[in-house]
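Reading is simple: the token line describes the chain's fold. The lines below illustrate.

. . .
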Amino acid sequence: MSTTHFDVLIVGSGLAGLSAALHLAPRHRVAVLTKGALADGASQWAQGGIAAVLAEGDSVEQHLQDTLVAGAGLCDAAAARFVVGQAPAAIAWLEALGVPFTREDGALHLTREGGHSQRRIVHAADATGAAVQRTLIERVRATPGITLLEGHVLVDLVTETTTGCGRRCVGLHALDTARDRVATFGAGQVVLATGGAGKVYLYTSNPDSATGDGIAAAWRAGCRVANMEFMQFHPTCLHHPQAKSFLISEALRGEGGQLKLPDGTRFMPRHDPRAELAPRDVVARAIDFEMKKHGLDCVHLDISHQSPAFLHEHFPTILARCAALGIDITRQPIPVVPAAHYTCGGVQTDLDGRTGLAGLYAIGETACTGLHGANRLASNSLLECMVFARAAAAAIDAAPAAAPPALRPWDDSRVTDADEAVVISHNWDELRRFMWDYVGIVRTDKRLERAAHRIALLQAEIDEFYAHFHVSRDLLELRNLVQVAGLIVRSAQARRESRGLHFSRDHPATADTAVPTVLTP
């Protein structure tokens, strides 16, 4: 097969990827590759909103301090200031595109979420991500210069070494699932916007696409990753046998929702003076503690003190989803459990989204910019996507044009069709279960050792399978998840303290100095 060339290849069609495409399209031939449909990513699922300083009495300094406090001393202050300072402009850009944010009396309605000292969450009812994604997808489809390649799963990045320029990324291989063959794409610049790796855990709020593809591919290509031990567990995912990965927005707690035991006892004030508005890591650990202490399958989130009219206006998606399952949130509490939600670490980048490999950028949840530190502040994630999409686009604009490389096409002439797909499904299930048990909200050295041992065994099996059989989406995702799981465990073993989202029973104290965990291939 021949190589298809573009100026810029963007892998991922969430808010980060589509924003970058819109910023780049007027001046570059851009292709957006996504392994499913354009709307399948995690951005579509975001309920709460986007943090921005827009209210009287609020300030960039307050937003910055809230971010630094939530990040447990590990945020890069320059990165945090860079992002929060551009928040109002990011909201204005989305409004100009036509995103239908919720308004009251003509002004944007601002809600409040855990860890925020002010109301500053811009939202579209309780389905902000869906509203933003619908708007961006419409714009991207209508923009000349953007080629959309759905059903293309990233296999690996392609690099080459040039005289005087060192090694650089020059393209990628991707599995075209409709044709069941691997295609080769060349580009002067490649942008990874593939999201996080929540599917490495048994219980997650993430969609099926969150398999760490970009993080794993960048690691294999020689990029550094940072802070992979900090996996954020959202405190409140709906607990119901018929509900899969349905998030109960933090905004419910921002509007007065209370966490209670089955007997109606409120417990968060015993764990933190901020109660339900404490940062996510604090609330998730508190719920985990109460569930283990009392032998519970879940706890309850009660918002029934608010009027039905208020709940219909502000939380129509949650109200309807719960009602479909027989839960009337106007009268009944919502059963909730913590679930893996956000990958705070990722591919290490600078403030332009550049990785350590020339020609390769990483933005959004795939990247570790330093913004989130040891714990992400609520509603800073969609903001980060937009800010770094614009920054990466500007850096690509300023980069010298690269000549199209002569890439060798994918060669699978020596492999055969797999006859035991059950190996993949079994290993996938085993991985997610032991990651939940051993590398979850609370960790120990022994649990991490057990996880590392099992990962090594799985890695050997998957490498052998990958070497001998035609690739499939399931195999590629499993390969990436095992790679990312190994990075999470290695990072957790390297941190001999408890900080933010990483809590170790063997090392419960927090060190005086906060140091990022950086792994180099």
Summary: The chain has three domains: 1-230+344-401, 237-340, 422-503. The chain has a mean pLDDT of 93.
